[in-house]
Amino acid sequence: MDIKIAYLSHRGRSDMEDVVAMFSKDVGPITFQLIDHTNSSEYYLLHRELENIDSENFKRLSKLIREEVGLKDDDVLVIVSPRELNSPYKLENSFKNWVSYYIKNNIIIRSSGYDKVTEGKPYLGGAYQIIENLFQNLGGIDLAVLVENERIHFEPEGCVNDFAEEFKEVKYKMRSGFICEKCKEAALNSESSRMDKGALHQIENILNRIGNRLKDNYTINYTPDELKIEVILERDPHKIYARPRCRMKIGNKAINFGRKGELMTVRYLFYLINHNVPIGKYDFIGDGVYNDAAEKYKLLYEKIQGSVSSKTLGDYIDNLPKLHDRISNRIINEVQNDYIGDLYSLKSLKTNKTDTCYIINVEPDNIDIPEELMEFRVA
Fold first, then answer.
1. Which of 125, 140, 211, 311 is the most buried (most CB within 10 A)?
2. Per-residue pLDDT in tens (0 to 9) along the chain, 379 residues
3. Nearest to 22 by CA among 315, 370, 258
4. CA-based diameter of the chain, in Å?
5. Where are the domains of the chain?
């Protein structure tokens, strides 16, 4: 069962990439894929003209995306948009702010508006909405008959099917990561259901993962082993002059940087080697405090990845904020612990030259780096 996600906001795509990676940690019948698009796509141009999205515009967008991407009828399409949604399912005398709904196999999610319920982690709001709508869609819930539907809880139970009219009720069910037994049974046995036990297991795991991230309270005492980040250089003994393969792990969690992993590894490794040292654009262009930063970075790049072109280095220097945010989000996503993930994220800070520098500010005792890599520390 393929779930295709069309992300139509010009901000936060890297967050959605990390959400998809979080969804994809479990092996099962459901697969998630983020759709690539260009600004010339017909559906993208239509979306750009819309101030809000009602059901008719939602149907038009869905049709265009399905045709352009070539989706099968039974594929589920999820559209994520920053536009305000005009839901056709609004109830009389209800003040619920609809941020998602679905029509047939098409789901639409608003990408913003979750700050009050996500403890400063708004990307989890969109993630939860995707999984909530997917569960209800596959389980055969008809949103057109909400009031009469016994599978919607108008009294909060902490279940994904809570109607959740108030912020505190939304927060409650998101933190719970819970599906009540009645709703699980109905999802599997309803005549209109397309849910099987494998899909239900995946959805439960994802809801639990979202809830655990929301409940992380930053007060747990971690052991030294749990807090340690280790860099491992692996060499093929039969290839003496081959470049080493670099792996990292935090605690017992291996860090996988994904599709562009080798580039992200070098970028992150450079700052990890230079832990507690703020390095920014001025340092890379030779007008900062650490004017050997570019040379040290290039030498490290050559050791791990191979030769680096001036264009590749220039693109990196010109896009430090975006690329470093992407790395930090990936770290948090991989360790599945916001406290430890935040500990090893790249933090930004301003210097007296108005340059934004970046730093991994951690205890040296928590870092295990091969001695041969310390030559790439700036002077």
1. 125
2. 899 999 998 788 888 988 998 898 887 899 999 998 778 899 999 999 999 999 999 999 999 999 999 999 999 999 999 999 988 877 655 556 789 999 999 999 999 888 888 877 888 999 999 999 999 999 999 888 876 678 899 888 899 999 988 888 898 899 889 999 999 999 999 999 999 999 999 999 999 989 888 876 545 678 889 999 999 999 887 776 678 889 999 998 999 887 667 889 999 999 999 998 999 999 999 888 888 999 999 999 999 988 889 999 999 999 998 899 889 888 888 887 878 888 899 988 776 556 789 999 888 889 999 999 999 999 8
3. 258
4. 74
5. 2-215, 224-376
**CATH number corresponding to 2-215:** 3.40.390.10
What one-character DSSP code corresponds to residue 252?
T
- What residue ranges in 35-179 does DSSP mark as E strands? 52-53, 76-81, 84-85, 100-103, 106-110
Both tokens of residue 247?
Answer: 């792996």
Task: Give the C-alpha separation, 190 to 150, whole Å.
Answer: 12
